Amino acid sequence: MNGKQLLLKALKERKVRFLFGYTGGAIMPVFDEMEKMGAFEFVMARHEQGAAFMAQGLSRASLSTSTPQIGVCLSTSGPGAMNLVTGVADAHMDSVPMLAITGQVATGVIATDAFQESDVVGVMMPISKQTYMPLAAEDVEKTVHEACYVATTGRGGPVVIDLPKDIQNQQAGDDYRFDAKKFRPHLPGYFYTPTPERDPIRQAIELINKSERPLIFCGHGVINSNAGDLLQRFIEKVNIPVASTFHGISAIPADHPLHLGMMGMHGTVEANRAIMEADLLIALGMRFDDRVTGKLDEYAQNAAVIHVEIDASEIDKNVRTTVAINADVYRTLHVLMGDPMLTCTPRRRWWDKINSFREVMKEDLREEIEVGIGNDNKLLMKGIVHRLSAVTKGRDLVVADVGQHQMMCARFYNYQTNNSWFGSGGAGTMGCSLPMAIGVKLARPKERVWSISGDGGFQMNMQELGTIMEKQIDVKIIILNNGYLGMVRQWQTFFFDGRFAGTPMLSPDFGLISQAYGIPYRKVELLEDVVPAIEEAIACKGAMVLEFICDPSEVILPMIPAGGGFGDMMIRHPHAPKKDQTKQGEAA
Amino acid sequence: MKRRAILAFTLDHPGVLNKISMLIRKKMYNVDTLTVCRSRIPGVSRMTITLRESDQDRVDQVVCQLEKFTEVISVKELDTDHSYWREVAIVKLEIEASVLETFHGRYNFEILEQKSDDIHILQVAGSTRRIDAFLDEVGQGHIVEIARTGVTAMEK
Known about the structure:
The complex is a heterodimer of chains A (588) and B (156). Chain A is an alpha/beta fold. Chain A has three domains: 3-169, Thiamin diphosphate (ThDP)-binding fold, Pyr/PP domains (Rossmann fold), CATH 3.40.50.970; 198-357, TPP-binding domain (Rossmann fold, 3-Layer(aba) Sandwich); 361-568, 3-Layer(aba) Sandwich (Rossmann fold). Chain A contains 23 helices and 18 strands. In chain A, strands 2-1-3-4-6-5 form a six-stranded parallel β-sheet, with helices on both faces. Chain B has 156 residues and is α+β, with helices and mostly antiparallel strands. Helices cover 26% and strands 43% of the residues of chain B. In chain B, strands 5, 6, 7, 8 and 9 form a five-stranded antiparallel β-sheet that branches. Chain B has a four-stranded antiparallel β-sheet with strand order 2-3-1-4, covered by helices on one side. In chain B, strand 6 and strand 7 (119-126) form a beta hairpin. Chain B is elongated, with a radius of gyration of 18 Å. The two termini of chain B are 24 Å apart. The A-B interface holds A 121-122, 125-126, 129-131, 150, 187-191, 311-313, 315-317 and B 10-11, 15, 18-19, 22-23, 26, 57, 60-61, 64-65, 67-74.
């Protein structure tokens, strides 16, 4: 067998079904072999970045199914590989297992600045979990298995295999043998410890038992270790409130009485105030990102911290821990649950306090959502997301893009399904939603998937409508169009005297664009049409685009200004938004 | 700024040095010295990196993140009290033999070659401070060229 055959054989053995990608000179042999084998479902993206996000979507959504799959994207050398970079970096920031296979120019011309040559390993090294360049056909199969192992174990991440064209065609020697079942990667420097140690568990239980104002953080690690149900049972057992990080959302039902919602920069008042007042934080699978902590010097000053995290280098990185548990979240919760020393106290005063925090913005938000319209009778995003949540009973899968609408989706959709919330967190990559939703749909074909973007983010990867058209992928697409880059506009309103530099945006006619791709479309401008439009999209067989014309002056609150502490949390609009000078950006 | 030495055992693979130096750059350090050699175990390299940082937490972070690399087998910071830090310098001096003679016994050096009456090439070994002291005492005016290896270190 030759390199390309061994590559595809190994992918097959790893139960890979979908390959997302785009062909080109240096990867052609692999594509040709794929066509001959007929063993994979190939999804052609319209841009390699799209392929990377599709692979991410597949990895993330399939994680909680009985058949987890690793998302694989393929590209050619040079520009093809460079177009994958954003998607790979994004997966790295968000700990998403993924395999990126790039063609490379033949070994004989590497480092001669050959046509479409880029130093892929050099570029990918700091933004991926591992990089490989097999230099013999005999190494290819082993590399794929090792790459999948590294990507999916411990803290997940993207792994890149840069495969020179001559190695794809090179014949393995006659005596080449490889047994995937017996293969154990030799990685003396690769450690991860899923099982928690006894001592820190004991210390953690002591801290939990004596805490008067404890708070649990539900991070991405809860989703990644499939510990949502277990966490729900745990919090019910110990009667401790829980706040979610951006990626922890949907691990437990959003409206669970012990759930305080999302924490951090645009988190709920109750989550953020509880963090300020807590005497114990139990952080599960998270990394205390700056959007979560705000100013570190002022962060949770009165609290002891129990940090459960599979990646040892995250412990004590930003927040000093009292008890560190370097282990898998599921296993840690399992051990904690089973320990008879763990007690449950009513903590009435703590709950009274939390319930008072819950009242702070409740009425304002309820009213805004109910009224549903803002300036110039334009729709409010939070009202739309709330109505989508009501119509779908919070059961659907939501893939948000990046920006103001993303925070609306994080806050106002009532997630009921485990692992039903997807998007770009750490990297904050605009344009991720549409391609990621394709991967999510392929991983969970029986569930309804909504790709929700702003007008800005949608246009960053809207070419993937072509993939949706060609593969007839049933993704319901929502564009919340306010004619601006909404989140930046909000900052400009608050901190830049309302000068809207580079944020007003003239969009094309999304109706004509949808029509060009043969996808049904409906534009919604009136509140009474919101629910019927959502229902129409649900009834529609296959993809549909809904464009909602939104009020650009809407803001997402609360907000902790960048670099500020939790004490600086803004819960009201600091001043009435200035009258827009630039009208050209208003939605067409 | 306190000088730190980090000792790492890594797989002897291409790209490992690149990965490590990239992390150090990402953490905004300028490498003071970096030495790599084979270790006792075939296929495993020994690397000593020195950099300047006063904050212990930040050094711990570098150690933790180095340890995370698949090719890095173990890492630790070596403190000055419990380890030897040594380097070697090759120095070309324009100096009278009789003057050089006065340094004998006080510094650990070996004359590799005497090129002319007053041109000597020597090898000096010892701690960074010791080599610095030797060079100071010789005086800049006498030094034609210096090559230093950078620090290698071992725990006591």
